Amino acid sequence: MNTIWTKMLAACIVMVAISLQVDGQNLTGKVLDETGAPMEFATVALYTLPDSSVVAGTVTDTDGLFEVENKGNVSLIRISMMGYKPAFFSLDAFDSGQTVRMEPDAQILEAAVVKGSLPKTELKGNAVVTKIDGSVLSHVGNALDVLAKVPGMISKAGSLEVIGRGAPLYYINGRKVTDNTELRNLMSEDIQSVEVISNPGAEYGGEVRCVVKIRTVKHQGDGFSFALTTQAKQHIYDCHDAEPSWSVLDLNYRVKGVDIFGKLVYWNQRGYQISNIDGGTYTLSGDQVVTNRQTGILHYESHSGGWQYIGGVNWQINENHSVGFKLQYDNGTINDDYLYMDEDVFRDDVQIDHVTTVNKGYNPVNDQWLGNIYYDGNVGKLNINFNGDFVKGDNTHEGNVEETSWFDPVNIKTGSESGVTMGAGKLVFSYPIWKGKLNAGVEETYVDSWQKYRITKAEIPSSDATLKENTIAGFVEYGFGVDFGQFSAGLRYEHVSMNYTNYMDHDNDLKRLQDNWFPSFSFSTKAGPVALGLSYTGKTKRPSYNMLTNEISYDNRFAYQTGDPKMKNEIHRTLSLNANWKFMTLTALYERVDNAFYQVAYPYNDEGVVMIQNANVNDPVRQLCFYLNGSPRIGVWQPNYTIGMEKQFFKTVVTDPRVPEGKRTLELNDPLFLIQANNSFRFPHSWQIDLDYQYTSPMQQLVMTILKPTHLLSFGVQKSFLKDDALTFRLSMEDILNKGVFYFTTDYGNCFVTQSNNGYRPCIQLRASYRFNSANSKYKGTGAGESAKSRM
Q1: For 739, which DSSP code?
Q2: Is 391 exposed, middle or buried (0-12, 13-18, 19+ CB in 10 A)?
Q3: With CB atoms counted within 10 Å of each terminal CB, which end of the chain scores lower, N or C?
C-alpha cells in the first residue's frame, strides 16, 4: 500500500512541478459583487486585438482572487459572471492586484426584483447558492433553521436532506462539521451564504453524495469574543419537567493573526415513541401454511446527555500561509434506553401466548477523541492544502431483558464492547492552467475497529471480531469558464483493502480488495434570464461497520438482528439538472443504484422468530425526483414554498410459501409528493414571526410502504435586543397538530410488519443566545477520512 501511496504522491508532485515551468508575467486581481462580497467563479479572459482571440483565462477562487498568465500579446481584459455586466479593461489601464466591483445586469435586475429585492438564489457551476446576509433568512434562528428554508434542502421526519440525495456533509468556511451542535450554535446573523452541491466532484470521497457549504460573515472581532446559546424544551405529551436540551459556549481570542479558540457543549436529549405493532411469519408445515402473528403495543424512551470539549489554535502567518490544529473530546455521561412491549401471540388466529418484554440498557463508556492538523498555503500560483486527522472511540453497552409469558418467563443479560481507531491524511494541490484551475490530490485512511458481544441466551452465540480497512485514493479535477458557460470534469480512484476476522468462527473470516473509479462532469450556462446547470457523478456507498458484523443481537423473543460481512458496496450513477429563473429554482435528478442496501427478514425457526438482516438488493433501484422552489420577497413577508415528487423503481424476488411457486416478484413504485410552505415575517424593532407547514404523502421506499400522510405545522416568534442584535430570544412550538405519525408496513414475502409510530413531537422550545465581539474562527482545516468517519 505504501508503494501505491508513494507513486501517486510522486505523480502529483511531478505534474505540479511541470506546471510551474510556464513562463510569463502574471496578472492578479480580486473580483467583488455589488455588496462588496468576494465573487467566486467569475471568468477572467485575456484577448488580443483586433481578432478578439482568447490567449489566456482563469476563474476566481472562493475569495474572489485570480491570477492569470500574461503571454505578452494581450490588449484587452474581460471579467464576466452570469447575472452581471461584463467589465472590460485595456492592459495599460489595469494594475496588477486591482480590485474590480461587478455591476448587476440591469435587464436581469428588472426581471428579478420583487418589492426591491434581488433574487437571493443563483446557480454557480453545479451548486445552488443562496445569499443569507441581508435577507430575511438572516433572522430565522440558527444554521439548522436557515438550512430548512434554503432551496435545494428539505426536511424529512425532522432531518435535513439535500433533495433526492439524503443527508449531506457540511462545511463551514471550508472546514468539515463533525456534529450538529456546531450548526445549532451558528446563528443565522453570522451566515453569509449557503451552497448546496447535489453532485460533488472528484475532490470529495467516493461515498460523498452531497455537500453543503456555509460561508460566514467576516467579522473583525480582534481581542476576546464569546457566544453563548442555551435552549430548554418541554414536550407536551410527557411528564418530564422542562430542562435544558443543549447549551454551547464559544470562546475566541485573536491577536496578530493567531486565533486561540475553544468550545464547551452540554447536551441533554430525550426521545419518545408509542407504537401499535402487527407482525409475523408464514412458514410451511408439510403442505400447510402456518401463520405466526404477534400484535400489541410498544413504548420506547431514550435519554442521552454529555459534554463536548473543543480547543485549538490557528495561525494566519501571512496572506499566503496558515496552519492550525484542533482537538475534540466527546464524553457521553448519559445514554439510557427503555423498551416495553405487550403482545398477544397467535398461531393461525388462535391465541397461544401473551408476552410482555421490558428491555433496559445503558452505556457505561461512550467516549471519543478527534483531532485535526492542517496547512494551507500558496507558493506562487500553486495552492497546497494538507489535512491530517485521527479518531479514537470506545463504547460499552449493558442490557437486561425481562420477559413474562404463559409458559416460559426468562431473564436475559447482554453486553457489548466496541472501539475504533482511525488515521487519515489528505494532500491537495491547486494550480491555474489555461482558462481554469487544476486540482489534484491524494488521500489515505486507515481504520482499525473491534467489537465483542455476549448474551446469556444459549442459542444465540457470543461474538468477537475485528475489522481493518485501508483506503488509498487519488483524484484530478479541472474546471474552466468561457463566455457561454463553465465546465468541470474530474476522476477519482480508490483502492480499498479490508480484513475481517471472526475469532469465534474463523470460517466467517473475510478479506477483499476493491478498486473503483468515480468520474464526474458538470456544465453550467445561461439561456436568456434562465441559469442552467447539468452534472453527472459516479459514487459508491460502503456498508457501515455495524452492517458488516455477523453477531446476532437480541431484540425480543420474536426478533433477532444481524449483519453480513460479505455485503457489497452500493454503486450510484447520478444525473442532475438545476435551473434558476428570477426567484424560482428547479431541481431534477435521475439516479441508478446497484447493490442497494436494505433489510430482509426471514423465519429463524418454526416458532415465529424473525431474523432481520442487512443485505443487498439484487436488481438495480432507480429513482426520479423533481422539486420546484419559489422564494420571493413581498414587503415584510418572505415565503419559501417547495413542491416536489420522488419516485423509486424497485423490483425484487421474495420467498412466500403462500404462492404455489414459493416465490413472487415484489414491485413497489408509489411516489412521494411533498409540499413545504415556510413563511417568515420580519417587522421593525427586530421582531420576526415564522409559520411553517409541510405535507408528505403516502409512498414506497424499498420494501417499506408508508400508509398515511403527515402534516407538520410549526410556529416561532423571535425578538433581538442590543446593538447588532447581540441578544436574541426565540420561542417556538413544533408539530402543533400532532400529525407527525409514521404509519408503515413492510413486505418481506414470508414475513410482515405493520407499525404506527407516534413520536409525540409537539413541544415548546425557548432559546436564548448572546454574542460579544463575535469572531468567527479562521480555522481552515478541512478534514480527511470523512467517508470512514461517517460509517463509524
Answers
A1: B
A2: buried
A3: N
